[in-house]
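User: quick one, fold this
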Amino acid sequence: MFLYEKDLKHKFWSFYNNKNRAKKYQFECPIREGNADLITIERYQGNYQINSFEFKLSDIKKVFLQAEANLLFVHRSWVVLPIEKKTLILEKYKNYLDTQKYIGVIGVHSEGRYEVIYQPKFKVNPIISQEILNLCIM
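Assistant:
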């Protein structure tokens, strides 16, 4: 169980990027009004992909709106929640996720280990914003 969102973010990131899977990344990336919590540039099967991550302990409706707002600029948009929300996501939000296609959900255990609760599809040809371009060349 997490007390603060920053703890969720820190624990997830230490496990997710422990082998430098993200070639480039930026926390609080200004791709939209209010910033995306995290943007990563990763190489997968020979291609680069852009992922966004939104972290929340609660307020599920808000985090999905934030993930939707990121979709214009990324291949996949991820919602990262405590693993305790897994049943809620699968029971209440599965239909929503099926229609959105490119939004996925990750559940994080208290020690940082994570699991994919809902796997999104890969969106082809997102808009490359100036902020993402800056991230790529940094």
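User: anything notable?
Assistant: The CA atoms of residues 57 and 126 lie 28 Å apart.
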